[in-house]
Amino acid sequence: MISPVDQRTWLVSESPFNPFKLHHTETIFTVGNGFMGVRGTFEEGYSGDLATTLAHGIFNHAEGDLVPDIVNLPNPLPVQVLVDGEAFHMTTGKVLGFRRTLDLKRAALTREVLWRTSKGVVVKLTFERFASLTNEHLLVQRVRVRALLGSPQITIRSSVDANVTNLGVQHLADLHTSVSGAEILVTARTNQSNYGIAVCAAHSLSIESAVQSEAERVSYTFALPQENEVGLTKISAIYTTRQGDQPAHMAQEATRAALKKGYETLFAAHCAAWEQYWHTSDVQIEGDELAQRAVRFTTYHVLIAAPRHDERVSIGAKTLSGLGYKGHVFWDTELFMLPMLTVTQPKLARNLLMYRYHNLQGARNKARANGYEGAMFPWESTDTGEETTPQWSHPQPDGTRIRIWTGDNEQHISTDIAYAVLQYWQWTGDDEFFVKHGAEIVLDTAVFWGSRAEYNAERDRYELSMQIGPDEYHENVNNSAFTNSMVRWHLQQALAARNWLLTHHREAGEALLARLNITEERCAKWSDIAAKIYIPRDPETGVLEQFDGFFQLERLDLTHWQPRVTNMDWILGHERAQRTMVIKQADIVMLMALLGDQFGSPEVQQSNWDFYYPIVDHGSSLSPSTHAWVAARLGLLEDAYKLFMYAANIDLEDLKGNVRDGIHAAACGGVWQAVAFGFVGLSLDERGELQIKPNLPPHWRSVTLRAYHRGQLKTIRLTAEN
Amino acid sequence: MISPVDQRTWLVSESPFNPFKLHHTETIFTVGNGFMGVRGTFEEGYSGDLATTLAHGIFNHAEGDLVPDIVNLPNPLPVQVLVDGEAFHMTTGKVLGFRRTLDLKRAALTREVLWRTSKGVVVKLTFERFASLTNEHLLVQRVRVRALLGSPQITIRSSVDANVTNLGVQHLADLHTSVSGAEILVTARTNQSNYGIAVCAAHSLSIESAVQSEAERVSYTFALPQENEVGLTKISAIYTTRQGDQPAHMAQEATRAALKKGYETLFAAHCAAWEQYWHTSDVQIEGDELAQRAVRFTTYHVLIAAPRHDERVSIGAKTLSGLGYKGHVFWDTELFMLPMLTVTQPKLARNLLMYRYHNLQGARNKARANGYEGAMFPWESTDTGEETTPQWSHPQPDGTRIRIWTGDNEQHISTDIAYAVLQYWQWTGDDEFFVKHGAEIVLDTAVFWGSRAEYNAERDRYELSMQIGPDEYHENVNNSAFTNSMVRWHLQQALAARNWLLTHHREAGEALLARLNITEERCAKWSDIAAKIYIPRDPETGVLEQFDGFFQLERLDLTHWQPRVTNMDWILGHERAQRTMVIKQADIVMLMALLGDQFGSPEVQQSNWDFYYPIVDHGSSLSPSTHAWVAARLGLLEDAYKLFMYAANIDLEDLKGNVRDGIHAAACGGVWQAVAFGFVGLSLDERGELQIKPNLPPHWRSVTLRAYHRGQLKTIRLTAEN
């Protein structure tokens, strides 16, 4: 049995059922395995529920839509239980008790319901599901019915719901459902991208009972004597043409093989695989069970979204837990989710970086289209690697459309990706990856910046105009301190990487440099840019000016604007927000997080914090964890802990009010960073050695985490005493 | 400023506003001071809200009702804020942020709302209230409006709502409202009990602005420039003819005097008084902030309900936080709330015991009416001290009425009261109270039992037929092991008390014994009953049989009946539940709690626990805390902690689904007992000396609590190490 402390720190429970949080709980109770994500929708279905089944890489650009969507696949969940002919539903009869529990340790979702029919029969229904980590094509379900009072006749019906859309947008064509024996097969293809899709569901009942195959479902009917229990195992396999030419055949083979193994065997293997995940990724906090559970919850959601066996897909901003941002991949992956994986699951981190490597062509296309050289990564990316940020919003209520500038001007994404590559390389020492793949990303994005930087001859400096930094309230600004600083850092790193290649892997290095046309002249220009790029700053205080003219904006005292959940951008209106010194998220503070002590002296860091912390709106879910990280490093533990707990509960408590659209994956990864890089103070020093500068919240008794460093798994344990 | 750890352990917050929990939050955000209780209803009013203002002792038996009600008094809360003519309401305009916080340390409720009008003006509204602990007739409110965006015209309207009922039942007559200047006076009387009531509200605005006196309200209208703030202080006094003949005059005098002092002065005095309360009643838990906060929350609700200056009132089962159980007083007070007060606030405990003393006549009346001698306390008690348990329920949907037997047969209440008196005496050493008042309660209830016990000549034993023990699923049973055991204990204590009186206070003792007609013969009979009263028990295991025939009932395995929130009594139906071995609450386990090691050997205690724990339904909110206490004593720490946390969160998380009716006060007191008597293992040994047998939950770093022992305040601090 699970121990009480494990119950409190590994289980996320809902009890009683709260119909008003239907969409919130659907999101947080998502199960997944790096291939698929299945929202926590109920088997019997509810009005307005958002059943969503997603698989990495299956995008489709429907006619009339602005950009591609990740495709909502046929829903394998539906199971209906009838008790003496009365269909179980939590709005009929009487629910005598309800508990839904996500077991983070085992990555399994269980719902227990005590239900009394209108005629007075009482049954206990237990619904279990997990997305197998050992066979990532399998969603495994079990539905158990126990007669507690009365001996009813039970009918169980199971189907695969092919009548699915993305909130009304139809992506599937050629839908076909067939039923044979206890097996249901649904096939389809996406109507633009032409991915073939197959979902096959097979069933097995724990007692002898004839299966009835109907048009689109299978059913069993049997008598259930009081105090007896019957279980239905339903195993669904999802395959697409991304896995092979015959997804239907593969799905059938997989379900049949799995059915032979049975629920318990599959679950045991799944749990063993999760034990491996947690062995390296679990952060253990003693003295703060709420923080402990929240950190496990956020870690879980990154892990279930991280592709295990596929290096041509990446994690969207909302993971596979909802349709928000249409499954698109942003900088969230590289700067928020990847660090946790780099340190604790380097193989998964490598997959994600390889996604960018394989999509260099899209980045090169974007650079060409914009008149630049090298690789300019898209702000939003899908299966094609092309820029998929919409240029315009859908029409507003007043008929106008809003121009979306991020795809044009939020160019720091290219440097963010280079940062992630270099971070991975430093932590893992994976030279093979770097030489073959990583260096090309770092260097070709440097080529882009070399072609992008604007020389201001009058002032003998380089500048970048029309940028959007992390603070998206201020668009198309000149000389974003964040972007310019990161570009300087990027070019320095690119030059160092070039030297390293030529020193340690001369042949491969020279070939790569030749292929990317990285000449001596180009390198000289990089040096010049790095030396002369303009970074606006108050010379007296050392406070960076977020961009040209920022210090002249109207300053709003946010002190009295609490408690605020609505974004200031919305309250003030976008036009006015642009003219106001209120920022969406960590921008200069993000720079402090990324650069660490390279940012400046402790005094300069404190001055920048003091200036920017009071004006940040946290309008992005990415912001609080970054602030927590930096506050911890600066020793501001009260702020750090408050921000950390806010970040850790964004999804659990739906603090932004939009969890229905999916998990805030960057916040999840950010929570790990706040603990590891902030409170624990983990970093690599100049020689690449592990370094710890702890700043623990005073009530934490201990923190234990694991980190791979150059292939060695290290255990770092800090206690309150030391 | 309040420290972060204090924020997490002293503040109970709601954010965002959850309209579906309106009644739950109204209850948990009740403020009070031992004289009045005011539910956390919003100043601007919402459809279906349950504004409730209660004062101890004001009951009324409306025509057509079965029993008296505590009377819902005129509501002093209403304040309406209009911004440019638009009335603030959280369903109009847009709420940009909402946070409601009950500060347990300061016993004050604050609501902060950022609100945007439909025209785009943004204001911050802050609503504060507290029920003054230094002048218990005062409810003090402050409403602050700050213009954040725009410079609106503000109108503030304030009234006292006299249009109040108890869920439709009208208790008030002769209602009269008058307004003079900034003062509103509402007077009324109860239509059966004829209590006179006055509520006077006075106002003061932080800026110069003419007050407009209208028919039933006062209002102010003024311009509010951006970034300015204006505050309205509203002070309401409640007096009744229980305080004097001229409640209206007293209320006016009180509000005028208070208005002169002003909000800050009143609040500072209030906070200082609460500091005194917490100095002795606060239990400090390190290593478990959730438990820490929950214990403070439950302690708060007992403290705000405990009468400070009135010994003719007591605390109803739902305190003054809701209309559940009509304000009636049950055994909940003596066995669940009183122990905490006896140990940490003995003056308050004495007030509650004096309520029973002053109502001995009602208990004597009940004994006579039932053909017994002495004092037989009512199962439900109000201002009169007479039995006020209804004999019948209101008609059910099918027209039938249910006979309610508790008023007839739940006779253990008399012994529960005697237990509380003796416990108070032992802890405080307050001989004066005991000689003058307490002994009379203990002895005259013993007289009742002496007349009540039935002699079975055939078996030469005493029996008690037609009883209801704590487990109310089984009514009118014979030889309730709980009741019979407690009667034996009671008679033994009465004999000892008699001897003590004759030894130490001969004159007073003889007078009392003579007055109560406690003769040598009567005492001999008590001895005989105590020696021969029948207590059903399995002779092999030592397991008590809850009552005659209990072991023969149908045994239901409750293992599979989880998660269950509905009571088994409801699920099975009352008739079947009577025939089933499922119990409502701690019954034998309650006996174990009360008798401690007198119950039996450790093995016998464990056997009884093992038998009864699996069949308890916790259908009463009194049950989990008692189980937690006993489990802790038995060293069953995992169960103990789980049960403790359940008890501690019954109201905070509305685990029983009925917090709308009021706080579960017994559960609140029970939580303190679980910590003090269970985990800390505090008790008095045979010589009356303090004894500690700790059984702390393993993750608790320390527990600190204070206890008055014979007038000395002791600090008990346990750490995980010792």
Automatic annotation (TrEMBL), chains A, B:
Residues binding substrate: W331, D332, K584, Q585
Residues of the signal peptide: none
Record-annotated Glycoside hydrolase family 65 N-terminal domain positions: 14-242
Superkingdom, natural source: Bacteria
Molecular-function annotations in GO: carbohydrate binding; glycosyltransferase activity; hydrolase activity, hydrolyzing O-glycosyl compounds
Similarity field: Belongs to the glycosyl hydrolase 65 family.
Protein name as it appears in the record: Glycoside hydrolase family 65 protein
Species this protein is from: Candidatus Thermofonsia Clade 1 bacterium
